[in-house]
Structures are given as structure tokens and as C-alpha cells.
Give the backbone structure.
Amino acid sequence: MNIYTQCSGILLLLVLLFFYGSQKRVHLNTGTAFFYTLLVALFSIVADALSIVAICNLDKISGIVVRSICKTYLASLVCLAFCAVYYICTDIYTKRVQHRKAVYCNGVIGIIAIILIYCFPIHIHCELDGKVVYTYGASVLTAYAAAVMYFIINLFLLVRKKEIIRKSRRKAMLFWMMIWIGAAVIQFFNNQILIVGFASSIGIMVLYIKLENPEVNLDRQTGLFNQTALTRYMRQLSSKEKHFSLVLMVLEYSFYKNISQESETAAEMEMINFITSVPETMAFKTAGDEIMLLYETEEAAETALGILRKRFERGWGKDESVFQRPFWIYLPDSAVIKDAKDLTHLIKHARQNSKELIDNGFLQIDVDLAQEMYQTRDMEQIIFNAIERNWITVYYQPIYSTKEKRFTSAEALVRITDEEGNVVPPYDFVWVAEKNGMMLRLGEIIFEKVCSFIKETNPEQYGIEYIEVNLSAIQCAYELFADNYIAIMEKYGIRPGFINLEITETATIGAKKVVLANMKKLIDYGVSFSLDDFGTGQSNLNYIVDMPVAIVKFDRTMINSYFENGKAKYVMDAAMHMIHGMQLEIVAEGIETKEQFDVMKSLGISYIQGYYFSRPIPEQQFLKFITEYKEE
């Protein structure tokens, strides 16, 4: 009896079914489709074995029953071929309407083929005491024709939609179909070799190993679902337009008594087990310090959040000696985000920009925070486009010398434009560029444009002695910053003394050693420095003592306070006296009226900058302004 290969295939599929059913897995559509395919394949190979047994016992069993069993096996082959199409369609068509339409259209083919299989005649061949058995006839040809048709459909989808399907999935599907069709061709031309069922079980095993092994979606250390599983699950939720609630645990801080490594590990596993035991919880390990918990309803999320926060008030492990103090981020309704794939950006934005999270350890994400995230992301795209397409310009604001009674310098200020050509205000994009790291590249582009302007126009002929260029904290803390700026100056042949770099006090926070090293290298080269925005934040005179600056710039808010607050006058007078005592120059920013100009001049302020003279203006307009003022 030619049934050994069928029995081997059945055993293989039963083993796969056991492992697949016993492992924890994310409920993904592709996983469901694979499970159905596995069951159909198992049914098909069992039907194959039963048909062989029935044929071999034709003298004991009614011919109608034997033919029915054989036709049922042929119908199962059609169902298995359909499952292959269903599986790949589940991966391709994420929208429910598209998926349903594709499944229905291909299902009609299968239904017609199965009806014809049961209507058409089938012939049975059995010889050598049951060692050679097979079937033939119109019913068999119909089954083969349907299988070939499904094969062609699958091949068409894999080629036509290759940009959508992951390469590994495409290769595994092609392997399964090739081995299955190859076995069918062999069996078609040699009916004595019954290997189609076994070949299909081999293909199912390949799908399991390469694509559907649940362990691929698990974090090895914690046993929770991993980032890959979350990405796939989020894509599925998005395609279904299904809302959810989220609780994010940020495990930044932990402390424990003097315990062994084994005790610490046991405590961590106790914590993980408790988290997963909370009703309706799907837990994902998404980063080194993050555990993301998803819930289908807001009520379930709030209940779970209460349970978790209360439990984390106590310790873990033996004697509760291991303590975790998570930050909690709570998203009641995913409707605040446009697409599930935006969730990662939202979480990152919340962690970086929410003071509430730092102060209270808890943040509830609302529409405003989500909108802020989208605005930030849109601004990132505007900055990226500006860098890539050279939509960056430099404006110049003249600086007036009260001693020489003329404009002797200017501050270079960046402007970028969006796709509609609108100028984006610096306060809208500078902080975003600093946050996402684009400021390094943006700063170099600005400085290169300033150097190019100096080389091409020679502002010295208009009486300009130096140009001020703003620096961000990110630039100052970059170890190669000084080398890169020196290289740009050498490229354009710029005299170092013509460059003054503006630095803020925040530049030294966390990287003072690197900042001072960069400043020393540039000062030795001939560049001078200004301390910008003095009078804001944590400004103090000790900072001026520590930093090798030649100029101190009083911020607009400090100037306004001088005129509006009687106490501020004494503070500013004392600051000016001490700064002048250190033989440093002072620039008063934000001067808008003649009264302010006259007072600052009477106080001995060396330089005046502000709208009283001019707003920041483009290059040629700046040169024209300087020329016309000089002529007056």
C-alpha cells in the first residue's frame, strides 16, 4: 500500500500544529490565514491516505463511497490551492473591502471546480495487491486545472505586488508553490508516485519556519511580544480602522537591596508575569526601557492602569526587595493619531517634550499633544526639503556702533522657505532642527553661505568689520565643529577676524569640555566669540568669566525690563559696570524706539541692534541699506 509518504506528511503537520497551537502569538491576519492553510493541508493529506485505503479495499467498500472519498481528496487539493491565494491576499490587501473582494473572486473559481469534480466521472486503478493505486479521469483533470489556475494567480500576485510583499515572504511562498506544483507534475505523469500531499506538508513547514513561527514575534529576554510583532499588529489595526487604548511603561529607574543576580532575574520575571496576567492586556517589549500595553477598549485600559500603578508601589521578588518606578504614558483613544504607524513618533515626542512626565511620572496624551507632534514632524519635513533643495537663505541685520556712529557689523540670520515659497519664522524651525539633529548640517550650510557672501561682496568696502553667526548648543558640543568651520573659512579664503560666532550659555550644559576645546581652537585661529541672549534663562556673570567671549549681547527681554521695571535698572547697571570692567563690548538687542536708542547710548553701550534701524534683510538689500546710510 503506497501510504507511507502520506503518513509521514500527516505526522509532520501534526507536529507543526502542536507547536503552533501551544505557543503565544499575536493575532495577526496572516497568522490566521496560515492556521487555516495548515488545517486544510492536514485534512487534504488525511483524505489522500483515506482514498488509498478505500481503493485498496474496493472489494469491501461500495464503489460510490470509494469514489466519493477520492473526489473529496481532489476537492481538498483545490481548497489547499485556494488557501495559498487566500494567504498571499491577506498579506497584500490590508483593506477589508479589497481583501474580501479578492477572496470572493478566487473563491468562485474554487467552488466551480469542486462542483465539477463531484459531477465529472473518476476512474480508479489498483494493481499488485494495492501497491500501485491512483485515480484518473475528468474529475482528476479538473482538480489539476484548478490547482494550475491558482498557481498562476499566486505567481501573478507575487510579481505584480512585489513592492508590497516582504522579500522573505515572497521567497517562501514561491518555494511552497514550486515544490507543490513540481510534485503534482510528477504525479500527473506517473500516477504510481503519490507525493502531492507530502510535498504540501513540506511547503507548510517552510512557511512555518520562515514566516509564521510565533517565536519570531517574541522578545527572547522577557517573553513578551517584540517590536516586529507590534509593527505588524499596528499595520493590521490601521487597515481595519480599529481604535485602541495604550499604556506605556517607561522603566528608566529601578533600585534594589543587596541581592544576587538570580534574585534580580526572578523579580523581573515576576513583574513580567504580573503584567501579562492583567485582563485583556497585550504586552510588547518595544525598546530597552519600554513596555507597551494595548487594550481594545478605554475601560479595559483604565482598569489595567489602576491595577498596575497600585502594584508597582510595592517591590518585587523575595521580600519585595526590587523596586521599579516607571513613567506612565497613557493614550485613552488612538483616534487622536491619523495612522497607527504614527504611534512611535507620538511616544518619542511625548517623552522628549513633556515636562509633566518628568515632574509627575504620568502623562495622558490628548489631541493637543498629538497635534503638536504632527506639526513637529511637518516642520522636520520642511527643514529636510530646505536642506535638500537649497531653500535656505541668509538675512542680515545691521549693528550700529555708537562710538563710530555707523554700521560696523551685522548678524547673519537664517530663513528657510516651504514648498509654497512662504518664509518660515526661525522660532518655528530652529528648536526642531536642534531636537532631531539637523542643526549640524543646517548650521554648516548657513556658515558656508555667509562665507560665500563675504567672498563675493567684500562687505569691508562698506565699512563692515565683522559678521556675527549664531551657533546652537548641538553645534558647539560636536567634536569636529571647529575643524569643519575652519575648513569652510579656508575654502572661501575668509579672514578669521571677520567672523564672530554667537554662543549661548546652554551650549556648555553637559558638554563644557568639548565646547571650550572648540572655542580655543577657533580663537587660536583668529575667530572671536559673543555671548548671546544674556539676560535670559540662567545667565550670570560667572558664565562670562568662564567663557572666552569678546562681546556680550543683552537680550531684548532684558532691555524691555530696564524700561518697564525699576529694579531691573539696577541689575542691568551693575551688569554693564562689571562687563565693561572686564573690557568686553556690549550689544543691546531689540532696540525699537529712539528713546531706547538714546538711553542705551547714554549708558555707554557700544553697539545697537534692532528694528529701530532695520529688520533682518536679504543680502543685496542689506548692502544697499549700508551704502545709502553711508552716503547720508
